[in-house]
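Format notes (please read before filing issues)

Several people have asked whether sequences and structure tokens are stored in separate files. They are not. Every record keeps both together, in the order shown below: the sequence lines, then the token lines. Line labels are part of the format and must not be stripped during preprocessing.
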Amino acid sequence: MAVLLSRLGTFSARHRFAVLAAWLLVLVAGGAGAVTLSGETSTSFSIPGQESTTALERIGEEFGEVAGGVSARVVVAAPEGGTLTTPENAAAVTGLAGTLAELPGVVSATDPLDPAAPSVNQDLTTGYSTVTYDAEAGGVTPEQQDALLDAVDEARDSGLTVEVTGQAIEEVPAVGGPAEAIGVVVALVVLAVTYGALVVAGMNLLTALVGVGVGVLGITIATGFTDLSSTTPILAAMLGLAVGIDYTLFIVTRHRQELARGAEVRRSIGLAVGTAGSAVVTAGLTVVIALAGLFVAGIPFLTQMGLAAAATIVVAVLVALTLVPAVLALLGHRVLPRKRRAAAVAATADAPAPARGRGFLAGWATTVSRHRVVSLLLAIVALGVVSIPVASMQTTLIQTPGEGTTQARADALLAEGFGEGFNGPITVLFEGDGAVDAAAQAAGTVSGLDDVALVAPPTPNADGTAALLNVIPESGPTTEATEQLVADLRAQLGDLDGVEASVTGQTAVSVDVAQSLDAALPVYLLLVVGLALVLLVLVFRSLLVPLVGVLGFLLTIGASLGATVAVFQWGWLADVVNLDTTGPLLSLTPILVIGILFGLAMDYQVFLVSRMHEAHTHGASPLDSIRTGFRQAAPVVVAAALIMFSVFAGFVPAGEPTIKSIAFALAIGILFDAFVVRMVLVPAALALLGERAWWLPRWLRWLPAVDVEGAALEKDHGAVREPELVGDPR
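Then the structure lines:
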């Protein structure tokens, strides 16, 4: 692989202008396609074939599209001490309902005071109008949302308290923003410090942005042909930017090392792409495996998210292997700091620059490997303690609106007027001959179940072949009691003669998705870890090195999710991450964090241990190979981790609830993995194992050699001497 990649790097350097033009053409074509072919994204999550999802579709068929359309609730509350039925307030409420019905895109708007179907509480102090749109979730345009919010603002002039909530006013999250820009700026600063040259830092960031641009534009084009979640492009952009910067960093750093040793520019590029590029391909493949493996959950929107993000990773790898060498060829020796260019040119004519082996990280490696038992135990105990909150982790698909928003105020008014469970109603669909009678009989038995606050009268369809029964729980929509009520309803209504009863609604959908994800998580973990172990065994020709890396990853996951639960569920340090409300984590968080962090953790494992393996292959003792490889790779891994942390952390304070907890878990997970697992646990464990770390059973020695270190290149370029550390902090 190293030889093939070296030739690709050399080819890209030789034909640099053609490569640059090709990528520019791809970027322009992607932009044109995104403008002309893009479609709408969805903010809803469901699983085709599950009872709750199928029932929602059936409601649309049995009761008309309006019943299945996306809606908003406009909540009205009378002034303190008054009611909604006074002549003045009643006129204002009825007038508001009429205004809402005339808004763009609105199919219907109910009147809270309609005698035939009132929607007010018993005290007549709080009511709501259900505003239904002729659109699916995510299909209400920003202009239609603005018109609704304007109508709500005008209604407040009457003295009523008016707020609005519901799917119809949920904003589709956008890619890019001030908070994300801060993360990019921090990454640029880290790059500038690492390289000691602003132009190289800018080049690194620019090539990464090209990869992200191509990936996100491709996803945008795909929205015109398939239904994608609104979170998909954000996840792809976040992950693509982080790995794109890191992959370029690894190749550029190796190129600078070869230049400092005296290699000619084009030859140096070939060596860098052949060696560091091999590690990039291996690392990228582990990320792709982890993301593509999300299909085992059997949830289409999760599979689409994984495949879209994986495609962005593939683009980032291709950029690192082709576009980066082309740009490096244009820069020549300018990739080195000005004061070191002359030394590099002199080394080309005379002798290689001497290796530099001292520095803080070199001392760190010596200390950790010398006190390996203590270091190993401290790392395990520290990560284990942070992992404790995982035991109380709860997940849900129902997102709590941010404090101070109109959605949060509307939910609070509904909870105060109708009870906590009103914000998470459960709908039961009865179908078949006698559905209306069955629903009426079930209303009596259902009202006796635990956690049931109210059972509304059945609502039949036009021909009486179906009926809806709305059940209001006593508890809120994200509580364990409400989840249990969904299970109790299914058990109670699962065996009706001649009538099929299906439990649905957003609360039931959330429960179904959470249960499916919980069931898929062990299978997913086994698949991803198993495939990655096979890949790492091929790379390092060892059994114990991959096992150390994977076990370290499990500690990373525990600590990452533990810290996330402590902040987002328990509320610890909530102000630091600009968290408005606490509650269960988004159901997608655990499986996405596991998939993404596994790929990134294996990135660091490959880049760090491959240099140790390289030193060991060239005859260094086990202890010396650990220290040598650590000294060579650790500065780059530290810079890469800081960059990745900055990019992920930039998505945390923005306030987008879907991505906030995921970004936090990834950011904190990167810190734990890079600075505790890879910088302490791995070198300590390998030092403890000694020569056994590189042991491979005889029955596995037939496995092909992947040659990440570029041993085959030695035949063409001579023995590989220990490279000079670029940016070695001393």
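For reference, the curators noted about this record: Confidence is low (pLDDT under 50) at residues 349-357, 718-730. The chain has 23 helices and eleven strands.
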